């Protein structure tokens, strides 16, 4: 079976609709077709300032959400990044193979480091994509399900794999990005020109917030002054974003929705989509709580995942260290 790897940061606490439709939905379906490795990437979370207690809680919270969403620990290797030391070790090797200018061209670094409120820009934020490449390459991954915003980082992972292979002999599989066609980028409800992100609380549907609040955010989503419910991302970005979300959450095509809502106002669409979201997140939140209520079992799942991950990761790292010229430990 081909192998899939992907990761998600525990930083935000709650996962959001962008994470789900851009990436997590594919994580779930790819369990059926791939040998799956899924990771809560806590090392990535400390690239920005983080409260230790909050990070610890959010890491369990993230794992509980993945399980509640349908990641099956019997079929997938689910683990926490910091439990497998090889991630940081391979990252160092890859950092040494990444050009300074190459890393500086990453748009996510440019965006995040230039945000006004970011008074402290860490070196870790700069080397983030090398760590992400290490995450992926350690498992000789074929496919990486991510949203559109990760395309450039994925491209760098491919470049680093090829660079290493041509310099030291072929070890790494060159991974392919697995980006959904229709939901690659879910937009902010208040600013439908920007990506939905946890950084803008009013425009993001968070899965662990009060479902009524999510429905309200959808009802107050920014649209346009026309009345027609039509998919047209250039002229009607707000309505188009809602149609994409509606279609993805219900499996009904956009064309079907357009015809169903002919003659209806934006208010109807928003109200109904709000209900779809409430119906989705309400049982989800109950399942998350069940996992959180049993932290011993949760930690056991993560420990088993880390053990499995380490078996593959340590083998890859041993080969890499040898190829690079490190003396084997006695
Ligand atoms: N709006 C989005 N549309 C589609 N996919 C998205 N992803 C994130 N936002 C969208 C995808 O979710 C996965 C996990 O990403 P992450 O660990 O980077 O999550 P995050 O940091 O919580 O994402 P945010 O909210 O977008 O954070 P900031 O504000 O830090 O940029 C990835 O596969 C990502 O593509």
Structural class: mainly alpha
Strand content: 5-15%
Bound heterogens, unique:
adenosine-5'-tetraphosphate
Global geometry:
globular
Q: Calculate the mean pLDDT score and round it.
A: 96
The percent of residues in helical segments reads 40-55%
Kindly provide the radius of gyration, computed on alpha-carbon positions and rounded to a whole number of angstroms.
Answer: 21 Å
Strand order of the largest sheet: 1-2-3
Terminal Cα span: 35 Å
How is the secondary structure organized here?
Layout lengths: L2 E6 L8 H14 L4 E6 L1 H4 L6 H18 L6 E5 L5 H10 L4 H5 L2 H8 L8 H16 L4 E3 L5 H18 L7 E3 L32 H9 L17 H14 L3 H7 L5 H27 L2 H30 L6
Parallel strand pairs: 1-2, 2-3, 4-5
Helix pairs in contact: 3-12, 4-7, 4-13, 7-8, 9-12, 10-12
The site of adenosine-5'-tetraphosphate (AQP) has 19 residues, from helix 1.
Q: What attributes does this structure have?
A:
single chain; 330 residues; mainly alpha; 3-stranded parallel sheet; two-stranded parallel sheet; 55% helix; binds adenosine-5'-tetraphosphate
What does this structure look like?
The protein is 55% helix and 7% strand. The radius of gyration is 21 Å and the shape is globular. It is built from 13 helices and five strands. The strands form two sheets. A three-stranded parallel sheet has the order 1-2-3. The chain has a two-stranded parallel sheet with strand order 4-5. Helix 7 (123-138) packs across helix 8 and helix 10 crosses helix 12. The two termini are 35 Å apart. It binds adenosine-5'-tetraphosphate. Adenosine-5'-tetraphosphate binds at residues 8-9, 11-12, 18-19, 22-23, 146-147, 149-150, 185-186, 195-199.
């Amino acid at each position: 079976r081909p192998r899939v790897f992907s990761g998600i940061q525990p930083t935000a606490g709650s996962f959001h609709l962008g994470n789900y439709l851009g990436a997590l939905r594919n994580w779930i379906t790819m369990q059926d077709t791939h040998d799956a490795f899924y990771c809560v990437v806590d090392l990535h979370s400390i690239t920005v300032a983080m409260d230790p207690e909050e990070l610890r809680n959010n890491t369990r919270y993230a794992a509980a959400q993945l399980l509640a969403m349908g990641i099956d620990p019997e079929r997938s290797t689910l683990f926490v990044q910091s439990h497998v030391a090889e991630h940081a070790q391979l990252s160092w090797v890859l950092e040494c193979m990444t050009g300074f200018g190459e890393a500086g061209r990453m748009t996510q670094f440019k965006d995040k480091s230039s945000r006004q409120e970011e008074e402290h820009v860490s070196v870790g934020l700069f080397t983030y994509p090398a760590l992400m490449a290490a995450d992926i390459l350690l498992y000789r991954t074929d496919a990486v399900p991510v949203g559109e915003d990760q395309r450039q980082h994925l491209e760098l992972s491919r470049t680093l794999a090829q660079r290493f292979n041509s310099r030291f002999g072929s070890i790494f599989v060159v991974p392919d990005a697995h980006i959904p066609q229709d939901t690659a980028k879910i937009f902010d409800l208040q600013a439908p020109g920007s990506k939905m992100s946890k950084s803008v609380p009013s425009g993001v549907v968070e899965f662990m917030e009060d479902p009524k609040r999510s429905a309200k955010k959808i009802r107050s989503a920014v649209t346009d002054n026309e009345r027609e419910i039509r998919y047209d991302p250039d002229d009607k970005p707000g309505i188009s974003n809602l149609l994409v979300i509606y279609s993805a959450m219900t499996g009904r095509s956009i064309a079907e929705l357009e015809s169903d809502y002919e003659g209806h106002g934006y208010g109807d669409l928003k109200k109904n989509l709000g209900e779809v979201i409430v119906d989705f997140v309400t049982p989800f939140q109950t399942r998350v709580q069940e996992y959180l209520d049993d932290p011993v079992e949760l930690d056991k799942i993560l420990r088993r995942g880390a053990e499995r991950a380490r078996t593959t990761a340590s083998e890859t790292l041993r080969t890499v260290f040898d190829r690079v010229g490190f003396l084997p430990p006695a």
